[in-house]
Amino acid sequence: MNLFPAFQTILYTISTALLYPVVALLIILCLWLLVYSGGFIAEWIKRTQFRTNGQLSDSLEMIQEQLALPPSLSENLPAHITAYTRQIKNIIAGSSVFQEEKVEDLNQQKQYALLREVDKIRLIVRIGPSLGLMGTLIPMGTGLADLTKGNMAQLSSSLILAFTTTVVGLALGVTAHFFSVVKERWTIEDMRHINLITEAMVKKMVKKDIKAEKL
Q: In the record, which residues are listed under signal peptide (predicted)?
C-alpha cells in the first residue's frame, strides 16, 4: 500500500490552508508597522531637536540635591525617564530599610522594559521575510497544480500573489531592521541617562543615611 499520495495530499491541504493566515498576518504587521512609524517619527523629531548630550551630566549635582530633574531636562528627556525619576524619588522619600534594593530592582526592571521594546521590533525583522517566503511558496504550489489543469488565469493570479507577498515581507523586514537599529541606539542612550540619574539620587540617599548615623 502506497501511503505517499495520502501524505502528499495532507501536506498540500495544510499548506493551502496556511495561505490565508499568512496573508492576514502580513496585512496586520503592515498596519502595526504603519502605526509604529508615526510614534517613531515623532520621537525622532523630538530627539533631534533636543539633544541632552552633556547636559545631564552637568546637572547631576542639582538632581542630587532636588531629587528631581531640572525643568529644562524634564521637558527634553523622554517621558518614561521623567516617570522613572519620580519613582526613584518616592523610594528614597520612604522609610524602608531596603531602599537600595528597591532602587536596584527598579533600575533593572526599567532596563528590561527598554530592551523588551527593542525586541518587539526585532521580531518583525525575522517574521516579515519569513511570512513573505511562505506567502510565495504556497501560491506557487497551487499555481503548479493549476498549470497541470491548463488553468492559466488561476496560475497568473497565484504568481501575482506570490510575488506580492515576497515584496511585502521583504519591505517589512527592511523597515523593521532600520527601526530596530535606531531604537537600539536610543535604548543605549536612555539606559545611560537612567544610570546617571540613579547614581546621583542614590548618593543623596547615602548622605542622608550617614547623617542619620551621626545623629
A: none
